Amino acid sequence: MAKAFNYTSAIRDLCVNICRTTPEFSNFDLSRVGFSINKARNTGTRIGNWASVTPLRFEYGLRIRIPEAFMRTLDVNPRTVARATDVASNVFALEAESFLEKEDAKLTVRYGSERMKKTLVLSCEERLRFNQTIFYRSPQVVGLDGKTELLYLFSVMIPRFYDLSCVEKLETIMHELYHISEAFDGDVRRFPGRNWQHGSKKAYQARAAKFARDWLAKEPDPALFNFLQYDSRQLAERFGRLVGAKFPRIPVVPITFEAALKHEPRLAELIAIAQAKGRLK
């Protein structure tokens, strides 16, 4: 019986070589990147994501997301420890049920128009002191060895990714690698301005295409990327069975202020600055 072809291992080996030979990615430690295959919902079209990189930390590599409303309450410069995030997309709206009448108030957490509802228990003091804000904890994800904590997940959407041309696949891989922060701290690469994920999308894609051309110009071992030339049907004919790693969907968990302090020690630095200013008792 023919041995199954491990698609995620092949993607990983290719990325290792790319990072080793491309200066912009040379500091990436791919032992801390999990490679995954995810099945696309609409399998009969090219429309939709071809691949993705999921960061497992927040801005500046923090383990928690610090809402801007909290920063405004403290009246400190967020850049001291971490930059504030976008209120419109990152801050939950909270509704209290008679919170002044109870020592612990049960709050309904509602996320924007999606109307996702969860409940948390926060003290009245916490609600009043911290401007009704909720923090978010990044999950701890370990690799296939069961011990290495991952900073990113690199996923390809199948069979959509299979059916791209070889050049499109390679440019897509470069596109996703370029999303990884230059500091390799678990955050994404951020660009100035409103479109912080890509800057100019046209310039971003042109950069990814240049990475691909430059890498090919170095005449890498064809065995590293030959598998990219095959579409779904050709992969099945050549290799028979395809296998690969799959990581589950990674949730971002809302947590209380006390829990946020435990997960991110740098939050205490912000509190200390606010206390020194007399903004917080």
Task: Give an overview in words.
Mean pLDDT is 75; it is low at 76-132. This protein has helices spanning 7-21, 68-74, 87-90, 124-129, 166-178, 201-217, 232-239, 257-263, 266-276, and strands spanning 5-6, 33-39, 51-55, 64-65, 93-96, 104-111, 116-123, 135-137, 152-158, 242-243, 253-255. It has 281 residues and is of the alpha+beta class.
List the helices and strands and how they pair.
Elements: E1 5-6, H1 7-21, E2 33-39, E3 51-55, E4 64-65, H2 68-74, H3 87-90, E5 93-96, E6 104-111, E7 116-123, H4 124-129, E8 135-137, E9 152-158, H5 166-178, H6 201-217, H7 232-239, E10 242-243, E11 253-255, H8 257-263, H9 266-276
Parallel strand pairs: 1-10, 2-9
Antiparallel strand pairs: 3-9, 4-8, 5-6, 6-7, 8-11
Helix pairs in contact: 5-6
Number of helix segments? 9
β-strand percent reads 15-25%
Query: What integer is the average pLDDT?
Result: 75
Cα radius of gyration in angstroms: 22 Å
Major β-sheet profile: 3 strands, mixed
Helix-strand topology string? EHEEEHHEEEHEEHHHEEHH
Overall 3D form? globular
What structural category arises from helix and sheet content? alpha+beta
Percentage of helical residues? Answer: 25-40%
- The rounded distance between the terminal residues' Cα atoms is 70 Å
Q: How many E strands?
A: 11
Low-confidence region ranges: 76-132
The total domain count is 2
Within the largest sheet, what's the order of strands? Answer: 2-9-3
